[in-house]
Amino acid sequence: MEQELFSHGPSPAARLTFFTLLSLLFLISDAHYRYLDVLRIGIETATYPLQRLVMAPVDLARGVGSYLHAQNSLVGENVILKQQILENRAELLRMESLRRENDHLRRLFESAKKIRNPAVMAEIIYGARDPFSRKVIVDKGSFSHVREGSAVIDDSGLIGQVLRAYPWASEVSLITDKDHPTPVEVMRNGLRAVVFGFGSSNLLDLRYLSTNTDIREGDVLVTSGIDGTFPQGLPVATVIKVDRNPAYTFSRILCKPIAGVDQYRQVLIMAPSAPPPPLPVETPEPVNKGKK
After folding, report:
1. Contacts of 215 (CB under 8 A, 6+ apart)
2. Which DSSP letter does residue 191 get?
3. Which domain holds residue 261?
4. Per-residue pLDDT for 229 more than 90?
5. Which of 37-51, 191-205, 277-291 has the highest average model confidence (pLDDT)?
6. End of a domain among 68, 89, 114?
7. Could you tell me which residues are beta bridge partners of residue 174?
8. What is the largest CA-CA distance in the chain?
């Protein structure tokens, strides 16, 4: 009988009532007197390392995921920025090319106003088929009043001569073409000569001048105009080297073209100058026959 009495504890209702009252007591005491703050802080301090240890794998996974996402984003942004840099650089080069072309066209228009002969604006469309010649093809021909022998210039001076005029295009022989002759004169003293192209380089050869001829480095050569092909006074070249070797009859004189022979696409084709008057015909003198 005693064992059955002591084997039974408080009833569930009594336990519920006890713990409910105890909880209410703790709540009221903590609300009014803050007795449990120290205990709460101590428990939080004691369990904080455990919380960090439990959250470490989660934080590591989040960190790795954020790093990989940021890495992929940076790689994508770098690819986009590099592409934009290339596009901007190409656009800048195009703008610079257009600016130089506009400046060249402006100078060409100014040159066209200054020259007396009518001129036609043309554009170089491609080089000649022969890789060993210095010739180009322009987009103006006989339908644009271009004639064979017309001088071709840019804003600085003479660059060539129309070799053949087709209906819609023309072939131009540059002054640097091999053995292309250009009658010139020295601006300093009026000395007349003929300059020839080398063909393999952007230089000219002033030939057939003796070693004692008054020619020096820095002299400017212009068209003489005496052949009736080129107008007089077009800048042609500047003397850059004079080699006087007593062992040879003629001096070795190299010149550099003043005009941009290989630089620009736009040129001016001048109308041919008026041909010089024909040479007088020599009439044979009558021969007086003696009497036999």
Report:
1. 186, 191, 206, 209, 239, 242, 251, 253
2. -
3. 119-270
4. no
5. 191-205
6. 114
7. 160
8. 199
Phi, psi for residue 56 in degrees, rounded to 5: -60, -50
In three-state secondary structure terms, 237 is strand
Only one residue has tokens 């703050």, namely: 37
- Write down the H helix ranges in the chain: 2-7, 12-33, 37-114
Does residue 126 share a domain with residue 103? no
Residue 159 confidence (pLDDT): 93
Would residue 7 count as lying in a domain? no
Same domain, 102 and 216: no
- Residues 36, 70, single domain; the answer is yes
> How many domains would you assign to the chain?
2
Confidence of residue 36 (pLDDT cuts 50, 70, 90): low
Judge if 127 and 265 occupy the same domain: yes
Question: Could you tell me if 42 and 165 lie in one domain?
Answer: no
Residue 217 tokens read as 């480095």
Tell me, what amino acid is at 204? L
Beta-carbon contacts of 232 under 8 Å, excluding residues fewer than 6 positions away, are 222, 223, 224, 225, 226
- The whole model's pTM is what? 0.62
Q: What is the rounded CA–CA span in Å between residue 136 and residue 171?
A: 6
For residues 239 and 251, the answer to whether their CB atoms sit within 8 Å is no
Confirm whether 129 is domain-assigned.
Answer: yes
